[in-house]
Amino acid sequence: MHEVSRRAWGLRLRRTKQQLALSLLLMLPSANIKDVGVRDDLFGAEYPPRLSLVYASLGPSRYQCKTQGQVDRYSFLVRLFHPLLHAGLSRRTNILNYASDRFLRHLPIVYVLTVIGRTEGDRLAVRGLFIGDDVECFHRAAALSLKVNFETLDAPIRKAVVYLDPHEFHSTWLGNKAIYRTRMALADGAELIILAPGVKEFGEDKDIDALIRKYGYCGTPATLEAVSANADLRSDLSAAAHLIHGSSEGRFTIRWCPRHLTSKEVEGVGFEYGDLKTVLARYDPQKLRYGYNFVDGEDVFFIPHPGLGLWAYRGKLLGRKA
Description:
- By secondary structure, this protein is of the alpha/beta class.
- The protein has helices at residues 68-81, 95-103, 135-148, 172-175, 177-180, 206-215, 220-229, 231-234, 237-245, 263-268, 276-282, 314-317, and strands at residues 5-10, 52-53, 89-90, 111-118, 124-132, 151-153, 157-163, 186-196, 253-258, 272-273, 291-295, 298-303, 311-313.
- It has one domain: LarA, C-terminal domain (2-enoyl-CoA Hydratase, Chain A, domain 1).
- The chain has twelve helices and 13 strands.
- The protein is globular.
């Protein structure tokens, strides 16, 4: 099955200081923090189903612009109601569509979307390029992305190993894709091992980094309590959203193996720590193939590019326990 990336890039808007990468998120959130709220007929007769893979990037919080407060608040609500929504499950109706039609129609917004797939030779290839100024552009890209990317598994993963390219991932802020792109596929009590040779910090800037170090990835209830009690976190809801998004909510173990962070630093934010050199000797990314590998008597699911896909256990989508 092909692995796909779908990114939407919005051109710079007038009167803003940063480039906004916008993808219309099209599923209303669910209050359930461990399961995805989709209808039981997802795998029914209709194909493609009314569920599409999307990814929305609203720009790192270190940039300040007139839209940042609204972006932070929306990001926080998305993760609060459903930590999987930002990762990409989407319905084709949403308040953002209404806002775009009602308030942004006068702006020259053009969306450029790519669908990236993996070939049989394990190389990456462009599967589609979609350019347009309305939601139809997104719908067509999402439909293709669903066909070549959204991977459903018949059984939950007990152990997953995710490799983060050191040229791309330097922080847990970005590297937590390994968590939110795989959480729907992981079994209760599973272990997620993240190989992170390039990760040297938690946040993409010193302020976010400090907040992550202070409050940690402790789950939704603890984060909400911290937001309520602390002005610094309350004033940066993008950080609070990220802390929720990067937690397993106690359902599975997350073991970070960074080259440039100490065990004290990693464990201090709520993760388990693994020595990168030791773990690489057992799980060598150069030898592992995408998908299941049999290593030392156990099945290990290997993902070399977490940002290019979304994985789910079929039973989880249908409301069954992993």
